[in-house]
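Supplementary Text 2. Reproducibility record for the structural model of the 164-residue chain.

All settings were left at their defaults, and a single model was retained for analysis rather than an ensemble. We include the record here because the model underlies the residue-level annotations in Supplementary Table 4.
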Amino acid sequence: MDRTADQSKSAGKNAAQASGSSEQTASAKSGDPQMATAPTDAEIEAWAEQVRQRRQAWLDGPTEEEKHEWFQRERMRRLARTEVDEVDIAASGGHNGHDLYDDPRRIQHRYVRELRLATEGLAVTMVTLPFLVMAELVATGRDWEKKSLHPARRRWIPFYDEDL
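Retained model, structure tokens:
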């Protein structure tokens, strides 16, 4: 039994004793849904069995089908990550006999990925460009202000050559 079941039983007893009414205890025993808040023993056992099965499944590990699905996802992720490196290796003459440009599907995948990256780069540039331009204009304005609006520094100019 858990603590909530004990508390709900004691709360029911206290309420019945406080009122002193036998009608309330009769309605609580008859299965009034407002008074019966604790789960039954059968519900507790069913829940415990579900927890045991879930924990056992976790201990048993993934099924063969789950392993295969994970392998496919991991393979595609790794190909997408290392595809550019493989192209560089093949271009440098250090390839292992497999030419990446023979496989049209791989070329298509590479171009789609490069197009997606270029589109993302364009979006970031379009979003940040106004702020970069504004920062550059402000910096240029400050430089011009320093050069033109501040008075020239006074320096000593000798009147005679002997003063040098």
